[in-house]
From TrEMBL:
Name of the molecule in the record: VWFA domain-containing protein
Compositional bias of kind Basic and acidic residues: 335-356
Limits of the VWFA domain: 496-675
GO MF entries: ATP binding; ATP hydrolysis activity
InterPro entries: ATPase_dyneun-rel_AAA, NorD/CobT, P-loop_NTPase, VWF_A, vWFA_dom_sf
Taxonomic source organism: Caproicibacter fermentans
Region ranges (Disordered): 1-27, 325-385
Annotated Polar residues bias: 1-12, 363-372
Coiled coil: none
PROSITE patterns: VWFA
Superkingdom to which the source organism belongs: Bacteria
Amino acid sequence: MKQTSILSPTRQLSEEEKSHVWQKPPSHIESEAEKRIYQEVVRNWNRGEMKISTILLEGDAGSGKTQIAKALSADFNLPYTKVTCFADMDKSDVLGSILPVLSEEDGHSDKVEYRYYPSEIVRAYENGWLLEIQEPTVIRDAAVLMALNSALEPDGSLNLPTRIAHRHPDFIAVITTNRGYNGFRPLNEAMRDRVQHAEKLDLPPKEVMMERVKAKTGYESEPVLSLLAETIMVLDETARANAIKGVAGMRSYIFWVDAVQSGASIQKSLYYKVLYKITTDPQELVILEQALASHGLTEKLEEMDHICQSQKDGENPEVMELNISENGEFSAKTDQADKNAVRLRKSEDSEGHSDTSSDENTDISSNDNGENGTPFYHELDKSDTTELQKKEFRKQLNREARQSVQGSVHEDIKLIVHRPEVTYQNREEYNRMMTTLMPVIRELIRKTNPLLEHELSAEFAKSRLYGTKFCADQVATMDFRTFARKRPPEEEPSIAVALRIDESASMSAFGRLDAAKQAAVALYEFCKGCGIPIMVYGDTADRSKLEQMSVYSYVDFESKDANEKYALMNIQARSNNRDGMALRIISDRLLNAPQKSKLIISISDGQPKAMPDYSGEKAAYDMKDTLQEFRRKGIQFLAAAIGQDKEAIRELYGAENTLDITDLKQLPARLVQVIARFM
């Protein structure tokens, strides 16, 4: 590849522009992506509509996106600049601002003038520089994205406060964005459509990682570089698989190798150079540690640490024999005890330990395992809810439920609302269920959280020194605060969810009850992780003549009981079902939530049927009447049909509001995905 490529041979850079052209350091190694982009841009530069001037680099943190953008500045001999996007960006951050300045002519400073200051985007756009646009996916205001899209048009222009700016023919935009972090959204479709070349950047092959670290640090030990690179790759893969938000990338690898080169312990520096950059959550650290153990890396790190420490301490290195295979793997043989070895699983009073540890290989998806892979359980969470408060809350729910059915066909039905007690067995069962569900739930939370943020903010905050709106009525104050700027959008989710579970006797067949329990746990954890209010209720009918309708309040968004989620394990098949009455009580309760959107999901396996005559057309009419009444009040209904009477359920709720769950194992994930769509 040429060292420089003047895309416009007749152009002369000013001295200031020359100072902005990035200079490749001796440690820079050209990647395949850089070579490919260079060749494509040069090949198409003078081909009119085929010209490539907008490039997308998408990948994890530390994958080299900014390095490639800077390298292209050197390759094309173009000045490099960048803009880092943020959530509350407004149009002034793209187009520039008009700001008040004091005139100092004739020694006076009481005259106010207004001057336009271009943004970095405008400077690059008009002067023909290479602009890196970092993380445009975090921007919440659609108007800002529209302004950026205008700048990315091949023959586009920007409507500035003082003039119209036209795109310089040498202007190149490089969009760099991470995948799947806090605040992440899918890249705007209109912006993605304007991209002419895109690269997906992941961790490079191990050999390339090693070459880059050698160039950066000067460290030459092949066995150490190989082992540390393999460890980084395993940790990166494990973090992805378990929806752990952190990342193990090239930056972590470089600084870990640098620490080892300076004499630090391989195992101790693993924590503060790599693991703690990924996460400091004790349970997530256990998952990462178990992944290293299951791949045999724990013992390899111990052996390598012993070798390095022995050589550092002046012991005879000849007693160790290193065998390097073609793929970079190593094995160590020694004729002396590992007296200097440091275990990766540190004791709780040692430096850099995690709160929970296991020396045995265990399933990396488990986050509730102790020694030898056996489950461990904690005491129930401390709760501020006293027995008296629990009793008062139960009375409140009973009062409200009876009020909900007044004036309906269920007015004379004897009703009791229960708040099931939590036992240690409930907790054990809940934790076992969570072991298999949590990786999927975490991944869905990670993808959904950014969607909860509003795209637009309609309110303006006045009295700002700069902004997008000039307020003439503020000039008289003489404090220069004559602009208005958009307020940040609200962060809180605007949806509340209720899950209703049919606890009729027929739910005990074909694994329906287990599927309903798993769905309840998955939905609860998902909603809690996204900050969404949720209530989970079950119901049955005809337990006795004195209890013709039984409602079970397992989880309620107004409850202060920290342990109530474990009560979900009390869901069971009981007797008949009076669906219309249950939906009326739950709907009325959900209306108390302040959120704008309200969704009720009903899991049922059959038609409503209760004593003495609640069945057939009467039950169907009551169901439809209830659904229609509360839909008018703003509640949306969705039914998960898991039994033999799916057609009847579809007739009651409507085909568009019915999920046909053929594979019960898919029920938890399906319900969580549905919630994400409703947001």
